[in-house]
Write a structure and sequence with these properties.
By secondary structure, the protein is an alpha/beta fold. The chain has 2 domains: 10-186, Rossmann fold (3-Layer(aba) Sandwich), CATH 3.40.50.1970; 197-376, Dehydroquinate synthase-like, alpha domain, CATH 1.20.1090. 47% of the residues lie in helices and 18% in strands. It has a 4-stranded parallel β-sheet, sandwiched between helices. It has a 3-stranded mixed β-sheet with strand order 1-2-9, with helices on one face. Strands 7-8 form a two-stranded antiparallel ribbon. Helix 3 packs across helix 4, helix 5 (142-148) runs parallel beside helix 6 and helix 7 (205-220) crosses helix 8 (224-244). The longest helix has 21 residues, at 224-244.
Length: 377
């Protein structure tokens, strides 16, 4: 069954998606203008007082409204610099110490309002502070709306790799308002679109057909109805997967399609040269290439997917990397078991497969092809 809803009125769109975890089920409230529901939702699901965490970009664009929505004094809004380089243990320590000064108690709630970086930092800090306090996700970027805000993954980076320190810590609820995307720079729509395409490739055939038939262009132009369709489809798909495998022991690993190489590229660039979404787009390119090279995916279908990817790759940065060095970074990936990388590949659209029999020469060959492709674009 398709997860794409039908709507003719972007200004009035809205839906609620349940994440039916056995231990802590919660809801994702999604639509246009849904930020106005925060006070009501907090009264229903929140705990204690709300202490917000955001970054300078969000605070500049939405700060006055955040104070109003959350009835939040200035002292209860913690503003961090933007960027992946903030995802460190030092930032977590700084944030927790601020909470001590401000009297944050175990019965209070942290509100992560921002992109995936803010969600990861604030969520992991909440998971650690006083051995765990509640938090809420209010994503403001396409990437965080379609992926990072749902599922309870939180964490920070190390120089050796991305998200190597973290915890599963589920939010009380997630509030997704696509109006936040109006202030998002166009290149950040491409960033988030990487996760939309990933979702379409591993599980939602209707979404894939929508993207092929013009949805990709509509999303990248910021059209509200297209954004609502894409975000809803991605959230519903991820909720279904997470409900079956909360701690990523089996099925949930398919959500890492394109991320093995993507995370290694981010790390190789010092988390400065490529954003997460840009790295995932290159990672998707490598995963499709590896799927074809190993005979998992037929060439014709791989070529069809590459046609969707090509115009995106032309608008994102490349990275000069050494395939051998990148392969060594792959060995730090969380999907490595017994020293063997486990790869999420495609048999066909909507049918991912996890393989551990991909050889080092095959991986190096594909990394070499990726390096050449980057050099030509």
């Amino acid at each position: 069954m398709s997860t794409i809803p039908k709507t003719d009125n972007p200004a009035g769109i809205g839906t609620t998606i349940k994440v039916p975890l056995s231990r802590q089920p919660y809801e994702v409230h999604l639509g246009s203008g849904t930020r106005s529901k925060f006070p009501e939702l907090f009264r229903q699901f929140g705990r204690g007082r709300a202490f917000w965490v955001t970054d300078r970009n969000v605070e500049k664009a939405w700060g006055s409204e955040l104070h109003e929505l959350g009835a939040t004094p200035a002292a209860n809004l913690f503003v961090l610099p933007p960027g992946e380089d903030q995802k460190t243990l030092a930032t977590v320590e700084r944030l927790c110490r601020r909470w001590i000064v401000n009297g944050v108690e175990r019965g209070d709630t942290i509100v992560a309002c921002g992109g995936g970086v803010i969600g990861d930092i604030a969520g992991f800090s909440a998971a650690c502070y006083q051995r765990g306090i509640s938090f809420i996700q209010v994503p403001t970027t396409l990437l965080s709306m379609v992926d990072a805000s749902v599922g309870g993954k939180t964490g920070v980076d190390l120089p050796e790799g991305k998200n190597l320190i973290g915890a599963f810590h589920q939010p009380l609820f997630v509030l997704v308002d696509i109006d936040f995307l109006k202030t998002l720079p166009p290149h950040r729509l491409i960033d988030g679109y990487a996760e939309v395409l990933k979702t379409a490739l591993i599980g939602d055939l209707t979404l894939f057909d929508f993207l092929k038939s013009g949805g990709q262009q509509q999303i990248l132009k910021g059209e509200p109805q297209a954004l609502f369709k894409a975000v809803t489809a991605c959230v519903q798909f991820k909720a279904n997967v997470v409900a079956k495998d909360e701690k990523e022991t089996d099925l949930r690993r398919i959500l890492n399609f394109g991320h093995t190489v993507g995370h290694a590229l981010e790390t190789s660039g010092g988390f400065q040269q490529l954003s997460h979404g840009e790295a995932v787009l290159w990672g998707l390119c490598a995963a499709i290439e590896l799927s074809m090279f190993t005979g998992t995916l037929i060439i014709d279908k791989g070529g069809e997917i590459q046609l969707l990817l090509q115009p995106l790759l032309e608008h994102i940065p490349a990275l000069d990397f050494d395939p051998q060095a990148l392969y060594q970074l792959l060995l730090h990936d969380k999907k490595v078991l017994d020293g063997i990388p486990h790869w999420v590949l495609l048999e066909e659209v909507g049918k991912p497969v996890i393989r551990k029999d991909v050889s080092q020469p095959q991986i190096l060959e594909v990394l070499g092809r990726l390096k050449l492709k980057m050099g030509r674009l």
